[in-house]
């Protein structure tokens, strides 16, 4: 059963449409991540669900109940803000307890719930401190505790890890994953960090300029992007895009416009290109789907090493192929020099082909 249903949601701010006709479901106990760049409409969607913004069109349901006219308090959602929004003069205990006190829970129940959540988040030793005495990671745990203590219908999280340094972000990703796997809270989580989304989500909903692009598991949006935006937004380094044409003069091949390379066209690619009747297409190859070789290989892209980026566990090699730069994710031990000839052998089973006019995957 869907815990949350967003139906044809539209929200405008003057002449700007922040969210356009969004329809999305979040299942009971699901961790769904709204992913997209700044200005995609992610936070606006979250605020509409919480009741902090009034939609211009569409409906929001929770547990099959229409909540359009309900106040934020009546919706029983918990919101974790990007800036944590802790009360500076209250202790950690008082910050976590605040939602329960506002609803006039008995004092002993408040104490029990706060200690239960503090134990869960490993912050019991901080209960008497104030926010100014906490690190960024500790403040994040307090903000999370204030949300979890409520036993809400759904938990809304607006880029909660943005203000943390890299080490703490990784630690808190692990913490979020552990909490969700243990308690199966229903989570709608906003981020512009595709690594964060891939690590946390049961499903990812990709937004761009207020429009929903694709919804699917992390594996689905990575391996089967529906358009050029999703293909290039998810993945690091980003997917290589090469203009080419399908040649059927002899065995079917994908050929560069400038004649710099030609590779065999798998049956599925050939059929997809023919189905839409395009002569030109855009070939997408992820950097990890190219294998570097130091001697000429059949079905390869010949080029010269342009830039080398050692990253410790891997090395990114930029290769000049004809008039374009192709990025390759190679093993850490690769030894190459700038200007050296190199051949890139693509995994033909993992090629992506896009319509140059619409950007849709073929």
Secondary-structure map:
Elements (H helix, E strand, L loop, with lengths): L1 E12 L2 E12 L3 E5 L6 H9 L6 E6 L2 E2 L5 H4 L1 E4 L11 H11 L4 H15 L14 H13 L5 E5 L7 H18 L3 E5 L2 H7 L2 E6 L2 E6 L1 H6 L4 H6 L6 E8 L5 E4 L5 E3 L2 H10 L3 E6 L4 E4 L7 E10 L3 E8 L2 E8 L9 E6 L5 E3 L8
Parallel strand pairs: 3-8, 3-9, 6-7, 7-8
Antiparallel strand pairs: 1-2, 1-4, 4-5, 9-10, 11-12, 11-14, 12-13, 14-20, 15-19, 16-17, 16-19, 17-18
Helix pairs in contact: 3-4, 3-5, 4-5
What would your notes on this structure say?
By secondary structure, the chain is of the alpha+beta class. Helix content is 27%, strand content 34%. It contains ten helices and 20 strands. A six-stranded mixed sheet has the order 6-7-8-3-9-10, with helices on both faces. It has a five-stranded antiparallel sheet with strand order 13-12-11-14-20. The protein is elongated.
Number of strands: 20
Shape, please?
A: elongated
CATH homologous superfamily identity of the largest domain: P-loop containing nucleotide triphosphate hydrolases
- Second rung of CATH, namely the architecture of the largest domain: 3-Layer(aba) Sandwich
Ends: how far apart? 33 Å
Mean pLDDT across all amino acids: 93
Note the run of SSEs as H and E.
Answer: EEEHEEHEHHHEHEHEEHHEEEHEEEEEEE
What is the top-level CATH class of the largest domain? Alpha Beta
Strand content: 25-35%
Structural class from helices and strands?
alpha+beta
DSSP helical segment count? 10
What is the third-level CATH name, the topology of the largest domain? Rossmann fold
Going across the biggest sheet, name each strand in turn.
Answer: 6-7-8-3-9-10
């Amino acid at each position: 059963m869907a815990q949350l249903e967003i139906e044809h949601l539209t929200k405008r701010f003057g002449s700007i449409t922040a969210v356009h006709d969004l329809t999305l479901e979040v299942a009971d106990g699901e961790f769904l991540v709204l992913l997209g760049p700044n200005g995609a409409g992610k936070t606006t969607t979250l605020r509409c669900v919480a009741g902090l913004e009034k939609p211009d069109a569409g409906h929001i349901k929770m547990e099959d109940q229409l909540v359009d006219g309900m106040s934020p308090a009546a919706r029983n959602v918990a919101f974790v803000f990007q800036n944590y929004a802790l009360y500076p003069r209250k202790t950690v205990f008082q910050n976590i307890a605040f939602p329960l006190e506002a609803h006039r829970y008995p004092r002993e129940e408040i104490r029990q719930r706060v200690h239960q959540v503090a134990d869960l988040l490993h912050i019991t030793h901080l209960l008497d401190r104030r926010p100014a005495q906490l690190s960024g990671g500790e403040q994040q745990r307090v903000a999370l505790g204030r949300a979890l203590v409520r036993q809400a219908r759904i938990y809304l999280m607006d880029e909660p890890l943005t203000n943390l340094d890299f080490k703490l972000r990784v630690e808190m990703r692990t913490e979020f994953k552990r909490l969700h796997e243990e308690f199966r809270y229903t989570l709608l989580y906003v981020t512009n960090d595709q690594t964060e989304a891939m690590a946390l989500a049961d499903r990812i909903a990709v937004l761009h300029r207020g429009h929903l692009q694709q919804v699917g598991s992390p594996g689905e949006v990575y391996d089967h992007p529906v358009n050029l935006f999703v293909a290039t937004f998810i993945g690091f380094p980003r997917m290589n895009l090469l203009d080419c044409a399908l040649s059927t003069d002899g065995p079917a091949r994908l050929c560069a416009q400038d004649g710099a390379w030609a590779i065999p066209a798998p049956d599925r690619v050939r059929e997809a290109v023919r189905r839409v009747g395009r002569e030109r297409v855009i070939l997408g190859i992820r950097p990890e789907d190219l294998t570097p070789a130091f001697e000429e290989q059949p079905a390869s892209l010949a080029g010269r090493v342009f830039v080398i980026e050692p990253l410790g566990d891997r090395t990114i090699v930029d290769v000049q192929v004809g008039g374009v730069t192709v990025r390759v994710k190679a093993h850490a031990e690769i030894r190459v020099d700038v200007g050296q000839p190199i051949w890139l052998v693509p995994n033909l089973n993992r090629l992506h082909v896009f319509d140059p006019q619409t950007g849709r995957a073929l």
